[in-house]
TrEMBL record, chain A:
Mitochondrion as UniProt keyword: no
Xref: Pfam families: PCI, Rpn3_C, TPR_PSMD3_N
Residue ranges of the region described as Disordered: 1-40, 481-520
One of the record's GO cellular component terms: proteasome regulatory particle, lid subcomplex
Family: Belongs to the proteasome subunit S3 family.
Domain of life from the UniProt record: Eukaryota
Lineage summary: Eukaryota, Haptista, Haptophyta, Pavlovophyceae, Pavlovales
Biased composition, class Basic and acidic residues, residue ranges: 1-26, 485-506
Entry keyword set: Proteasome
Record protein name field: PCI domain-containing protein
GO biological process: regulation of protein catabolic process; ubiquitin-dependent protein catabolic process
Native source species: Diacronema lutheri
Record GO terms (molecular function): enzyme regulator activity
UniProtKB/TrEMBL annotation, chain B:
Domain 26S proteasome regulatory subunit RPN2 C-terminal, chain residue ranges per copy: 888-1043
Name of a matching Pfam family: PC_rep
Occurrences of domain 26S proteasome non-ATPase regulatory subunit 1/RPN2 N-terminal (ranges): 15-330
A GO BP entry: regulation of protein catabolic process
Keyword terms: Proteasome, Repeat
Basic and acidic residues bias (residue ranges): 942-963, 996-1011
Organism listed in the record: Diacronema lutheri (Unicellular marine alga)
Upper classification of the organism: Eukaryota, Haptista, Haptophyta, Pavlovophyceae, Pavlovales
Low complexity bias spans: 981-995
Similarity comment text for this entry: Belongs to the proteasome subunit S1 family.
Keyword Repeat: yes
Protein name as annotated: 26S proteasome non-ATPase regulatory subunit 1 homolog
InterPro entries membership: 26S_Psome_Rpn2, ARM-like, ARM-type_fold, Proteasome/cyclosome_rpt, PSMD1_RPN2_N, RPN2_C
Amino acid sequence: MGATEKKGEGKADEPKAEDEAKKKAEAAAAAAAATKREDDRLLVDVPAQVALIERSAATKDPKAQNRVLRHSSAIRRKLTAQAVRNAIETFIPEGHPLKPLLATAAAKVPEKPPPPAAAGAPAAAAAAGAEMDVDAQAAEKRTAVCMEVEAYICVLLTTLLIDAKLLDDAAAVSSAAFARVQATNQRTLDAMGAKVYFYYARAHELGGKLASIRSALLRAHRTSVLHHNGLGQVVLLNLLLRNYLQHSLYDQADKLVAKAGFPESAPNNQLARYLFYLGRIKAVQLEYSESFSCLLQAARKAPQRAAVGFRLSVAKLTTIVQLLMGEVPSRSALQQRELEKPLRPYLQIAQAVRIGDLAHFKHVMETSAALFHADRTHTLIVRLRQNVIRAGLRNINLAYTRIPLESIWHKLKIDRLEDVECIVAKAVRDGVIDAEIDHAAGVLISKEVDDLYATLEPQLAFHKRTSFCLNVHNDAVKAMSFPPDAHKGDLEQEEAKRKERLREEAELAQSLAEEDDDEF
Amino acid sequence: MSVAVQSAPGLPMITSASGMLAMLEEEQLEIKAYALRTLNAVVDDFWAEIAECLPEIEALYEDEAFEARQLAALLASKVFFQLGELDDALTYALGAGALFDVSATSSEYVDALLAKAIDEYCVQHVRLTDGQPRRAADADADADAAAGADAAGAAVDPRLVALVERMFDSCFERRQYKQALGIAIEARRLDVVYRAITRERLAAVTEATPLADIGAAAAAAADAGAPIESGADTPAMLEHCLKACGTTIGSREFRAHVLRLLVTIYHRLPSPDYLGMSECLGQLDDAHTVAALLEKLMRGSGTEFLLACQVAFDLVENGTQRFVNRVTALLLPPPAAAAAASGADGGAHGFGAAANAAAAGAPAGADDAMAVDAAPPAEPAATATATAAASSSAPPPPATAAAATAAAAGAAALEPASREAKLMKILSGELPIALHLEFLCRNNRTDLAILHAMKAAVEPRNALCHSAIVHAHALMSAGTTSDVFLRDNLDWLARATNWAKFSATASLGVIHRGHHTQAMQLLKSYLPTAGLSASPFSEGGALYALGLIHANHGAPVRSYLLEALRNAGSNDVVLHGACLALGLALMASEDAQAYDELKAVLYNDSAIAGEAAALGMGLVMAGSGSARACEEMIAYAHDTQHEKIIRALALGVAIVQYGREGEADGVISSLLLDQDDILRYGGAYALALAYAGTSTNGAVRRILDIAVSDVSENVRRAAVTALGFVLCNNPAQCPRVVELLAESYNPHVRYGATMAVGVACAGTGNRDACEMLRAMATDSVEYVRQGALIAQALVLIQSSPQGPDSRAGQLRKQLDKAISDKHEDAMTRFGAILASGLLEAGGRNVTIQLTSLNGHKKLPAIVGMAVFTNFWVWHPLVPFVSLALTPTALIGLNADLKMPKWAFQSNAPPSTFAYPPPLRPEAKGKVALVATAVLSTSAKAKKAERAKDADKKQDKDKAEKADVAMGEAGAPADSDKAVAGKKAAAGAASSADAAASKETRVGADGKEREPPFQLLHNPARVLPQQEGVLSVVPGSRYTPVIREIAPRPAAGAAGAAAAGAAAAGAGGSSAAGDKLLRLSGFVLLDDTTPSEPQELLEPAPTGGASVPANMEEPAPPAPFEFTEGA
């Protein structure tokens, strides 16, 4: 899997959430301004984040924690080693088992040079840093730390170490945090715990030690299931699948998917990821149509504007799987705005398959082999060779009523003449072409083409689309939820309504009485 | 592949288990066993793969010939565990035998399976124990066989038993007794309960031994064994277990077994906990043991006698009338009773209750109607004897120490008799009721301005509102004996006619509730007299009032009421009153004669009289669960044509089933399945009362089912109301349960929801409940608004704070608006007026409590509440709510059962728990003396004044009554008095001075500051929410008898310590003082210096006909000058 893809995946959930935040901001401008100010403050102020997390843990209300997590990618960009060091100093009490480890690891991180974009404001940054120092000194040292804050600081430090390419330290810190989180059974830790799991796997993956953590992930997954920790369960399952796929253990991954359930309440981003992995597994196992539907779902569940890397990976795989199914992907799908350039080799493959040009296909294969290997789509693309030949056959079938096999050999540039008959026979049997072979003469005789519109085919296609639309509608309805107690208005409102109702009743009674009078 | 297999256990680098799985297909058994071993090592990583081959592994386990079949079972179990199928995992884990290692280092697999095993065991063992009594009880041959088969089928898997036994053992090894106790209770293992509490194993008891046998074995062990060493935390475990009995044990039968076991263990403690014991025995309905217990305590030391009194008070408060009567009878064989009656002269004095002497004999069966008449003249005589004769254990005030010892020696001979008499006075209810009456009279804070305002707001012709105001007044003055308002407004009152007159007369009973001594005299002009026939409505009402006065303590009027019933002839209204009165007075007494006479009235088939008779029958047999009574009542309900009678009978049956839980299921089902909706209505009430205060899930589910599915609106309303009763021990839960019902389209269901919340959260001030009800008070249907208002009043009664901005204050405004709004519906206004009455009930000194302090259900309160909710069909039932009113009092009593002057500390600002401010202070000039915040500067001025005459020791009774909140100025002043006798006044005064000047410094900032605590004087109003902040003033002379006995410093040192502590307390530290263990109700006080004269409180005069409104107002506090910075 390419570097771009990894990066995209790493961010798949945060940008999505940010996206949502943006939408909300549009809805209520004034509120958004206030939130924005606070968010800006949040981005530089680790103690503020910690305070939010503590409040959230104390009140068992996940909202504040989610807010911190939502900004984690932005925070990661602006994070300084000094801030993390201060946080460790302030919030992790003396004598805490992780303190020495964290402190030494944090000490290794060199201070980032001020980013060129913010060159104008180095003084301000320094001032902020100084201010933070003052804060850290002013805030009295804590004697105890809640698990959520501890996990959060570990996550911050791990990202910092990863960014500074200190992968061994990152692995050590994340392993320690992983062990502590796994040993704690409290539901307020779920969200933060999931983050710890993720960076644990990430640090080891970058360090090339993925295989060694497989057992640990499996155990953590079991623990999550037993503790009804849905989020942890989903994240760990995805990490495990990624782990297996990275080592091409498709069979193991498939069995794990079959035996381990996927909780319904999973967040969209995790679901999208899960579906993507599932699509890959199915594709390798030749179940193309299932794979295709999984990938389609994944693309749909993924964030629509952000997470480019993830969408790119999905689009690449979707293209190949669709080609393998014998369909031709739409040009528009391959020419989306930010995806067009990276997808160009795939577009060429698709064109080769469509026209059945084996030579062109070979050419693209050779020129872009490195990319395909990196994308881990190479094995699948190799399988496409058959499809190229079939597409060629179909063209021939349409063009000629009778053609010698030898000509086919020439036209399609198949390696050996003896193979041609077998390939053609297979194509006939699979229903790719409607024809028969005259063995004696060595010719292929095409049959009359039926009128497609006389068959059930259009109806079936139509039904397929209808049911798809209905499903989308149903899902949308199911996904809707009303805020609790929304139907209960204000007391004053109720009172006003009651008055109104009484008045109407009185009027009605009066008018009825008048009608009665009129009658007599 | 073989390489992979060889490296499997050590290295994690293998990527598939397929090689090992393939070996399972081999022919050779060794290879299979080897495969299983290697698989077992890697199952955590490859379970998904191994799961594919589960059938083969299972087959290997089932192959009896295969050696490693247990290994196969273990492997299968682990795979099932990973698959999340714990049932299968447990089955195979049990099959794995010793390979399933419980004591291994804890892994999730073992933990999860152990939890599962315990759950499974609990379910199976409960089924087993449920089978036992059925087998023993059923005489029917076929039923017996069926039950036997059942039990045989339910026998617990021995492997499971072994596993759980191992668990218990390891629990005990690790000293996790509470955990073991919890599991034992869940699984109904009585022997393990015993072991967890006492740390002793019961010999010859196995897992399958019937519960009764285990109890017997425990008793035998108790007889043989030595007392349990005091080092163990047995008392704490006992308390824990007792709490669990009330909250977690759902089966009444098993609870009885556990309670019996607890009593056995209590006996073996080195210092037995008699209160705990009597509580258990009360729940078990075991009068014999309670009597023996009291007998023993009575003969014991002084402290033990105090304990006996405390036990007796608890019995009267929590027990049913029948139970208390039985205890009394056992305690006092007839000849002794006579002796007690003669000796009672010595014991009975004070409180103007000379009738006590006669009353002491009353429970023994003496006919005592005459005693009441004898009372007033005896009064001065009694006081005289009290001073003259040194017959009591404590000498009168002027006696010297020498005289006291002499008197004590002289009293020794008389002691047992006088002690018995005192105990009798408590058990007969005489004393508790008199004390409560005393408290309510003394602290009466009825704000008549509210009534006047209501009277003015309601148009005179509106009979509904008129009678509502009469009811409201009765509730406001309930138990205070102050009927000034009625006397002042006789003309207005005369507008009540017919049944309104009945209710108005009955309201006298509410006002004079507990005024036993003068009941007859008060009602003389209304009661039926031979020859003279006044209005039957007032006669009936007066009888009803008599019943209300003597509710639940009917011995004094029993014969009178029976006579009245016989004399009433065919007058329905008088009969109605007499029947209700009889039911009230003899509530839960199971009096056969009364029951039969009521039945005779019922069989006359007159709608009005029959209705009351049916209700009366239910009340007399309340909580007995009597099958005969239920059969008769249901049978007659089917016979009669009168709906009124059917409804009352249904309700009566429900009352009979009070607290029977599971035993009542048969009757409840037959009622609920009846075609007649009125009987189904009774069924809903039966569910409510049978499971009242249990929060049983089964009952709640059943009620919810009826509430949404019955076709009759009445039944649905009753069912929703029933929820409140079932959940009344768990008030916080109720609003959530009825939340959806409160939004029902059906107004009857909504009304039921208001009542449910009102009943369950009564007196709690629960926030959710208030918010919900507040929203419902604007409902579109008038009676839902009515219900919401009444329920709000129930919830907010005596909640704190009561200021104008509090929830209670807002409700007052809302009620005021509803009452004065001419366009508001009459129904709603009726509710609003009633709600005002409830909110201010009992002179603002009572609350509504359906359960006692320790979580015991109170029969009179719950039954009274249930009947009250029926005012929907019959307004004269409103006064029944007075049965649920409990004074919010803390009354301290000394060994003579009299109230000494004693103060304790409430560590909260006085305004937190103050009375609500009066409506219009200038309207009548009657200022309810609210606790005023005392300026620290003025406090200092007061202090200076007080320090001057500290040694004069003048009578400050009135002044003290006035300043409920003296704050910090009060504390030192009071400790002054306490220490004065010890000649340490100078030291204390100086330290108090220091404290006061310190306070002044703080106050000099110019801010008005409220003192952080206040002193409360015996008898004091203590709100339920206030109980958490009470403490004993350090160094006070009296200490509550129920508290951990800490080593006390010697008397001399105590004075100095007290002075120091008082100074610390005055300095603002609220931590000073011991925590009070018993926080409301009656507290028996131990006198630390018995040789000194005691200061006792003078009895307060009671109101009523014989004492025409001469209640003097307490004098206002002495004027003082505000001198800043002086």
